[in-house]
């Protein structure tokens, strides 16, 4: 039951990364692919009806983590206090920027375009660095708590690591390029003409960066935490996860070059989900490894008791079916190339 | 300043700020359903255009509500990690259900409400409005259910290592505490929406602008506001009070400023409590009334704070006393204002009575204050417990937080919310100046007649 919930929480996080990932990526590049006011409104209109729903996956995943693994929730949220607060402020800025930018003159919209771009670019970086912190391990004490400053000596193998060190910054960079690629694929799918051409060029540049950083990041991960190879060796079926992820990444290039943008978007989504699933597979049964291994939180010592997990599964399934219906409905309604209308942003 | 006090201020500040917005959106959601229904049933294009106008106001407030709401869920973990570890099994069930059943629904249908009218047609647009209403009210339910468990924990068994285990899901979801608190809170939301709608209508009437729309806003705001303000006093407010009497006598004593147990207790209308001397300065009190309100008997003995050990007293007695009295005082005034306005409306004199329109306009900010005061009453009165009778607030805080780090984020939120406040004023001013008129570049928005004629 605990393992099932671990898989389900990772699934929700993957949904968040894949869905909100494209609108974060779109935000990070919109200054560069959309030059005129109309182009920028068009870009916002492409994500306008969906970004809020995509972000709900983060809130829903957080809530699910909270009731299924309360110890993990308490430990990780209090330990990652500073980056989480920064992430909250960035999420706020971003939400406001989307809704506010078209309510004033050129200077007004210029300010919000800049903030929207900045917040959208920093969020993937912090989210990537956050995942890297979990993979690297955190200084949990014997009570099951820790607190990390933003950085200490920038050394991932330090006994008192900070949120940022060379490894987590590297993975943050990988998350950034990967979401830029993902967002550019989405934008290419939703637009035409000049904006689409720029999105294509952006996607191919980001693809190159993602390939490079994936290679370096993977090597760095096994250097920082060699024990992550154990699960792959013990259960070879798990090798399928990184293979699918890398396959998705490599094929993005082909779809991109031939203008099959829908498939390109799916392929970059497969890459993101595959990377997240690979990390989760490698960590298992740890859910939050500690620098002193005995203090690690695992699926068994961090999980809620059985009854709550079983009850939760019933309503969670129902909730996900409903959520799937809403998402199909909304995405179908706003399907196809986007055009400006009166009620647009 | 220690991390505990700062974390309490952190949560109080962020939730008080957040709670300026959801009451308005929950109230407007219901009013928009009524307007959309009127538009379709009566083929009323004014009402239909009013829905478009209010959905823009709704959207701006909804977004602020969303972005200021996420920090609250996060703070359970960041600042209250021991509480989360202790009770996450139980309390996060309802919090997670809010995500699964309310947030997904809202996010989908708010988009349809704002952008979907053209593609969807009128009936589906009406359906979207209904779903937005249900979504926002479901969200409120799950939050109240979570809070109700902290006020009145049920359906759990203690775990040997500290902490609680969920033992009965339905007991938690159908906690008896929820019913009065939910309907009282939703009543506050409807009152807020009604006063805002009537107040804006009054503003336009005073300016002689958008008069057909303004009359609709005032009429709907006053009718709905009258019903809601009366229901807020009885039965929901009364039921909440009796529930507190039965289960949280320390909260009752502190919010009423009742330091000494009294036979046939009197109710204090005005005064400044002094917790040191345990007296109330320049008190205006009415004898026997508290006994009637709580126990329905003239001579009922109501326990004062002296009946309880000092370590069970709420720690902010004066603030709790004021919060409660502000809420009740304003609630009474709201009922009076709405009753007067409804009388004038019935006599067909309201739209010409400039003083009454001024009064409706001037009343607009006060429901927001009453909502905050009510929330403060509920939460301050629960102290010194974070889960009533089960876990002290002091034992719920994150153990490794330092003063500097909490202050860092508290100041960050203060700055961020100052910016949001300014922007909110700008946006609201823009919408109000633009008014409920069709878009300056008339587009092919469908009219109700066209679709249903």
- Contiguous low-pLDDT stretches of chain A (5 residues minimum) are none
SSE ordering of chain A:
HHHHHHHHHHHEEHH
What's the mean pLDDT score of chain A? 91
Total strands of chain B: 8
Low-confidence stretches of chain B: 449-453
CA-atom Rg of chain A in angstroms:
20 Å
Q: What string gives the helices and strands of chain B in order? A: HHHHHHEEHHHHEEEHEHHHEEHH
Strand order of the largest sheet of chain B: 1-2
Shape of chain A: globular
Q: Largest beta sheet of chain B, briefly? A: 2 strands, antiparallel
Helix content of chain B: over 70%
Structural key phrases:
heterodimer, A: 345 residues, mainly alpha, two-stranded antiparallel ribbon, 13 helices, 2 strands, globular, B: 453 residues
Characterization of the model:
The complex is a heterodimer of chains A (345) and B (453). By secondary structure, chain A is mostly helical. Chain A has 13 helices and two strands; from the N terminus they run αααααααααααββαα. Chain A has helices at residues 2-33, 37-47, 51-68, 70-79, 81-100, 106-136, 166-190, 193-224, 229-234, 240-257, 261-283, 299-302, 306-333; strands at 286-288, 297-298. A two-stranded antiparallel sheet of chain A has the order 1-2. The longest helix of chain A is centred in the first third of the chain and has 32 residues, at 2-33. Chain A is globular, with a radius of gyration of 20 Å. Chain B is mainly α. In chain B, the strands form four sheets. Chain B has a two-stranded antiparallel ribbon. In chain B, 54% of the residues are buried. The model of chain B is unreliable at 449-453 (pLDDT under 50). At the A-B interface, α3, α4, α5 and α13 of A face α3, α4, α5 and α15 of B.
